[in-house]
Design brief:
Layout lengths: L12 H15 L18 H15 L3 H13 L28 H14 L6 H14 L38 H10 L4 H7 L7 E3 L7 E3 L5 E3 L6 H10 L9 E3 L11 H7 L6 H8 L1 H11 L2 H15 L22
Antiparallel strand pairs: 1-4, 2-3
Helix pairs in contact: 1-12, 2-4, 2-5, 3-5, 4-5, 7-12, 9-11
């Protein structure tokens, strides 16, 4: 495959190059094989086709961006950004309970089918997923979206997908800040990246079981806060959406204010003690992260700029290159 010159968008040009080079050297040697405009010759319309698939799906279902972003996190944190989460079969990552609620697979499959027609055997599922998540942030349903950023491509698809690798590599919503710091550090990501990437919770939704242990309600409707860091009025609203005995399939928007818009409302919610998860609320409670939360809550442009940098690092975690992987013909199975 060709290696073309690196082209960056205005403003992010030099900074993105610096971030990418430093991250590749320190945490992901294979990342050095990634490049901007990787498909410039082999499949020029690749990014357009992925973006079109995301836009089309989002116009029908506003929850798609949140699903795609979550799908990327669950992929990159397990085996690296190699589309291993897309593989189907007994004992694969998708079979672990932590992943059974993932969505957005049909969007990736749709983009892959189109690309296989125009550029067969060329664009990896790992790149499609990374690009789709990138586009999901920018494309928001009937509202202003998030930042438009450029990420390098050239990832190859992994050959290994094991359910046993999921739990040790996924953050639980009950994690303490120290546990999250240790986890992010193991992926080559900093405390700053932790706070910025937590902002992904400005879109998406969660099942009631992910936060129901923060409060309880008796048969008379009386509310008792177990986690005092949670706003009582917000907790009362959550109990109405997640009543005792309700179906386990019920979901609640991560952001109660601007559910389908990628913005800095997440940090404003934290200041109002309306972080949905315990792992959100700890960012405000701990002095190591509180100041950054306050800054981001009042500076959306600053959040967008920081997001571009941290997202670039996220999508470069543990990438496969050369004989480490393949270009799958179908995202759900290896070429075998």
């Amino acid at each position: 495959m060709e290696r073309t010159h690196i082209v960056f968008p205005p403003k992010l040009r030099l900074y993105n190059l610096t971030i990418l080079v430093l991250f590749c050297i320190s945490a992901s040697p294979s990342c050095a094989t990634l490049s901007f405009n990787f498909y410039a010759i082999s499949c020029p319309p690749a990014e357009f086709m992925v973006r079109n698939s995301v836009r089309s799906a989002t116009s029908d279902d506003p929850s798609i961006p949140g699903k795609l972003l979550r799908l990327l996190f669950h992929d990159c944190f397990v085996e690296g950004c190699d589309a291993s989460v897309l593989l189907q079969g007994n004992g694969t990552e998708r079979t672990d309970p932590a992943n059974t609620s993932l969505g957005g697979f049909s969007v990736i499959d749709s983009a892959k089918r189109v690309l296989e027609v125009f550029c067969p055997g060329t664009v990896s599922c790992a790149d499609i997923l990374a690009l789709a998540a990138r586009d999901a942030v920018e494309i928001s349903w009937k509202q202003a979206g998030g930042p438009a950023i450029q990420i390098p491509t050239g990832r190859r698809d992994g050959l290994v997908s094991a359910a046993s690798n999921v739990r040790p590599n996924i953050i639980d919503t009950s994690f303490t800040l120290d546990e999250m710091i240790k986890f992010f550090s193991s992926k080559g990501l900093s405390l700053n990246d932790l706070v910025i990437l937590s902002g992904a919770h400005t879109i998406g939704s969660a099942h009631c079981s992910a936060f129901s242990d923060r409060f309880q309600q008796d048969s008379k409707g009386n509310l008792t806060l177990i986690d005092s860091s949670l706003d009582s009025t917000y907790a009362a609203e959550l109990t109405k959406q997640c009543p005792a005995g309700a179906s386990s399939s019920i979901t609640v928007n991560n952001d109660p204010a601007t559910a389908f818009q990628f913005d800095n409302q997440y940090y404003r919610n934290l200041l109002a003690h309306k972080g949905l998860f315990q792992s959100d609320s700890v960012l405000l409670k701990d002095e190591r992260t509180k100041k950054q939360v306050e800054i981001l809550a009042n500076d959306q442009d600053g959040f967008f700029e920081s997001w571009a940098q941290s997202f670039l690092k996220l999508t470069s975690v543990g990438v496969k290159a050369d004989d480490e992987g393949e270009i799958r013909r179908s995202c759900s199975v290896t070429n075998g």
